[in-house]
Every structure is written in structure tokens, then in C-alpha cells.
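Late entry, evening session. Most of the bench is empty. Finally got around to the prediction I had been postponing all week. Sequence below, unchanged from the version circulated by S.P.
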Amino acid sequence: MKFLEISGATVWRGETAALKDFSLSLHEGESVAILGPNGAGKSTFLKLLTGEVRPEAQCGALCRLFGEELWSLEELRHRIGIVMPEEVARFDEDEISRDAVISSLRGAYGRTREMRFSKEEKARAEKAMDIMGMAPLGGRPFGALSSGERRRFLIARALVHEPEVIVLDEPSTALDFAASLHLIETLRRLISSGRTLVWVTHHPGEIPPEIDRVVLLKSGRVHADGRKAEILTQSVLSGLYDVDLNVQWSGGWCDVRLSEAG
């Protein structure tokens, strides 16, 4: 079943068309990587996917989420869990990490002292933290966590709604090497468990073997879309980034470097 269907859509950011004649379909049960350089349209695509922006009304254009052309942002918040690195700054350093997760059920950031939660809601928060391997750290202040631990709590915060789709915007941004590896291994387990992930990234090398479909964006359009091994090639990636690249594969991972000639 398609959870996203876009056809011939144009989205304006001020006087600039951030997405132009944009067409793409995504399916439940299929994890996909969205890859592209700065200015490719990834941020606007995310806002379209989460209902924050709508395409220009024009003949033949179509944008459906879960089969609907009109949607409620409140409903989408439960059906699509989105994780962005900048969310970290929305929590006080001394906030209890468990509260950062459960407050998502009220669509809130910050302290939960005035909020009341049922046993079922508390159990959902514990389950989400357990999935991310963070339940033992639930009682720690958010500011006492490492950057990688904070990122995993943010993903638990998205999982607490039991969404049909998880959207990850640059999940390893600002993480050190070890934290990035640990996070990617956790996300690989999520995909293997049957979760639908949309993984937005600048870096081909962090796309795990469990993701087989890759969509490349460039200048507000779909530059290429297909199986990872067919899309992440020297010629296609060199055209995407406008630089000569060398691509090698090992164990389902793609290693991309500047070519010696470049």
C-alpha cells in the first residue's frame, strides 16, 4: 500500500521552486534512502511528507498521504514519526530522559510535571525506550547523556506513537564515529523487524544493506530512483554531485571517494 503518492507537484519556498514537477511514490513495508546534495530539495520533501507544506494547486498535480489528499496534522503526527537532529535543543539539560519520550504523547517538549499519563501510556514509553536499548538510562537527566544516546531517545520519542512510518533526517549528523556506528546498528535492527523507514542523508556510505531502494534528489527533482546497486554507481553519483567519484562495494555497503583523476 502506498503511504505517499506525489505526481507533478511544485512546492514554492518564497520565490523559489524548491520542488519542481516532482513525482514519487513510497510504500508501507519498504524502507527507502533519500539522498542528495545541499539544495536538492530534501528539506522541502520532508515538510511535504509530514504535512507541513502543500504543493501548488495546479491541474494534474497530486499529493496523497495514506490515500488522502486532505489530512490532519494531528493524525499525521501519530502515523509518521519524524526525527530531526535539531530536536535535541528543545529539551532542558536537567529534564529526565524518560519524560522527553513520554511527553511526545501530548505533542509537547519540556517538563511533564503538570501532565498525567495512564499506565498504558507509560508502558508504551518504556517499550519504545527498550526497542532503542535506552530503558536503563530512562532516569538520567537528558543533559547527562552522550550525543548518540540523546539521538536514540529522540527515536524512542517518535516510536512511542507506534507510527506506521519513521522518517530520519540525517540521523548521524554531529555524532562521533563510535556513536554513529552504534546508532546505525540500532536502525538496522528496526528495519529488520519490519519497520518502514525513510532515511534522508547526504552520505551514501551510511545507507545500510537492509535498505535496497534509493531515491536521488537534485535541483528539486527526482534525479534517479531504483535499487541501490543500480543507482549508487560511479556515473550516477558523479552526475548527482557534479564531481568525479569512485564507488566500491563491500558487504552491502557503498564506499564513495573522490576519484584519483578528480
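Two things to note before I forget:
The chain has a mean pLDDT of 91.
Residues 177-192 form the longest helix (16 residues).
Will write this up properly tomorrow.
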